[in-house]
Amino acid sequence: MNTLAEWFEKDFLQFQLEFGRSSLKKYAEHIQLSQGYVSQLMAGKRTTVSLSKSKEIAEIRHDPTILDIQGYARSDSQNITIDSLPRKLRERLSFALEEIETTLRTQSIQPDSREGINISSAILKKYGFIVSENNDSE
């Protein structure tokens, strides 16, 4: 996913998977934007969303990819784009993330639950990633 238009199209489909078949208007209300603005983003007529609104959308949709696409730093101070990774690592990570997403969705597990974190860690390890627990509190 390289453009904001692609992200919004994918996220709208994801929204429909989560909440049932919905109109663009309901999706726009959910992410607190106007329907016209979302339409223009999906059509590629608009190519940016403000940093503050992008952070709100990332939080509402539990997906910080919108920040990565626009080059905004994440609140955790990490700003790594998948395009900056070596091809083989990028492919491995992509497969791992797809498996995590599918597993959590099919088992109706929240990604930030203890079970979701354990499943995600196990899948990442399966693909050769080192997973360490960060005990820092914010």
Describe the structure concisely.
The chain is mostly helical.
Low-confidence blocks of residues: none
Provide the helix percentage.
55-70%
The proportion of strand residues reads: under 5%
Any idea what the shape is?
globular
Helix and strand run = HHHHHHH
Gyration radius, in Å: 16 Å
Assembly state here?
A: single chain
The biggest beta sheet is recorded as: none
Number of strands: 0
Q: What is the residue-averaged pLDDT?
A: 84
Cα end-to-end separation = 31 Å
Helix and strand composition category: mainly alpha
Number of helices: 7
Which descriptors apply to this entry?
mainly alpha; single chain
Account of the protein in words:
This protein is mainly α and 138 residues long. The protein contains seven helices and no strands. α2 packs across α3 (35-42) and α6 (87-106) packs antiparallel against α7.
Q: Helices, strands, pairings?
A:
Blueprint: H1 4-19, H2 24-30, H3 35-42, H4 51-61, H5 65-70, H6 87-106, H7 114-126
Helix pairs in contact: 1-3, 2-3, 6-7
